[in-house]
Amino acid sequence: MYLLYGRVIDVIHGEVIENGMVVTDGERIVYAGAEGGFRVPADADVRVIEVEDGTILPGLIDAHAHLSGCESVNRTGNTPYELLLTVVHDIGELVDAGITGVRDMSVFGYPLMKAIEKGNIRGPRIMPGGRVIGSTGGHSDPGPELSPAEVNEKDLTSYLADGREGCLRAVRTQFREGARFIKICATGGVSSQMDGVEDIQFSLEEMEVMVQEAKRHGTYVAAHCTGLEGARQALRAGVTSIEHGIRLDEECVRLMVQNDATLVTTLSVAFGIKNFTGLPDYLVEKALAVEKYIRDSYALAHRAGVRVALGSDYSNSRNTPYSKIGREFEALTQVGYSNIEAIQAGTIHGAHLMKLEDQTGSLTPGKLADLIVVKGNPAEDISVLADSDRVKLVMIGGVIQKELHT
Ligand SMILES: [Zn+2]
Which of 255, 256, 193, 264 shows the shortest CA–CA distance to 224? Predict the structure, then answer.
């Protein structure tokens, strides 16, 4: 039994408890609230952790990741074996940064999830989404060096599909490979050379086919959306999350509220691209061209009360190191969200998208003990979440995965 004493963030009520206490027993939380509200059983085997000038909060959840290792500074080569070994290393860095849950979109999510669950490797909880389904020539198409069939055979993050039958088979293929949700590209994107950001990729019928098939598997579709019309069409087709959401209008946010859809951020990358090094010119140009829409889109979503979950799109590259993945919290506060709202986006709302809202994402008795301790108070200074070195303790399912004694 662990007894943690210190400042506690209650993300359910959006409150900070100054003299708080969290108690874990085995893999679960048994108490979280004011200090003194819990009677420690006389025979309990107890370890006390005094948090002092720190804060106890739920483990952080990154709802938008591609754990392919392709862009990592730690990769030793480009074969799938080398890249998988890279990710096995890198996800340890995610844990060190306080990430206890990840919604992945790559071929490795499922085997990583199983290895972590078995205790073979150290890593966060993973919800695998399989590969990103896109139309031929669309945002997720790596280009004509490989044929579409070769892409589907070899690519670690992309799967190409066209037409009703193709889309149906693509979704079923992802489930065959372990996906627990489906990611599609509803519009063009910034990182792809051949398409326009406003391109609508997939017809309404193709999107509906994929949404309906995901529903038959008890899950949902997440849609990459940079452009406006494609986002609107994806929402009409019934997608459950809009990734990036660079351009949204009144109708989009109304549909999101109506459908209980979630907006997934990736703002740190969106705002950061102009300062990144080593990117091709077309990519920087595209990023700059759409940046002006972001603030208005997020202001509309905020005003309408759309649920927002935090996603990073970080790849442990030089530009997006996992040790700084918490910069995404700060980025959300720069478009009008409060510190507490940003923390909710990166905890309970991420858990919602992982379909683990009743198991993790808040310090609630009965839930899994996924929690972190950070130096400082993120409710007052959100930047304390932006650096791995400030994450003093990480616990996943009641097991301490990181502990700094400084
Ligand atoms: Zn992405």
Answer: 264
Q: How far is the CA of 313 from the centre of ligand 1 (A)?
A: 5
Per-residue pLDDT tens digits for 198-226 = 899 999 999 999 999 999 999 999 999 99
* Among the listed residues 126, 60, 95, the one whose alpha carbon sits nearest the alpha carbon of residue 344: 60
Q: Positive or negative CA dihedral for 28, 34, 39, 40? A: positive
* CATH architecture of residue range(s) 2-58+364-403: Roll (2.30)
Ligand 1 mean position, distance from CA 65 (Å): 6
Instruction: State how far the Cα of 221 lies from the Cα of 214, in Å rounded to an integer.
Output: 6
Contact call for residues 107 and 156 (beta carbons, < 8 A): yes
- C-alpha 224 – ligand 1 centre gap (Å): 8
Helices (H), ranges, 260-346: 267-272, 281-304, 327-333, 339-345
CA of 328 to the centre of ligand 1 (A): 14
Tell me which residues have their CB within 5 A of the ion that is ligand 1.
313
- pTM for the model stands at 0.96
Sheet holding 307-309, edge to edge: 158-160, 132-134, 182-185, 221-225, 241-244, 262-264, 307-309
Domain ranges of the chain: 2-58+364-403, 60-353
* C-alpha atoms less than 13 angstroms from C-alpha of 344 in its C-beta half-sphere: 17
Average pLDDT, the chain: 96
Here the tokens at position 344 are 């909710």
The span from the CA of 63 to the CA of 267, in Å, is 13
Report CA(165)–ligand 1 centroid distance (Å).
25
Nearest to 283 by CA among 191, 363, 386, 381: 191
What's the pLDDT at 287? 87
Q: How far is the CA of 57 from the centre of ligand 1 (A)?
A: 26
Q: CATH homologous superfamily of domain 60-353?
A: Metal-dependent hydrolases (3.20.20.140)
Cβ–Cβ < 8 Å for 217, 257: no
Please state, in angstroms and as integers, the Cα–Cα distance from residue 275 to each residue in 62, 268, 281, 292, 357, following that order.
22, 11, 12, 16, 36
CA of 245 to the centre of ligand 1 (A): 12
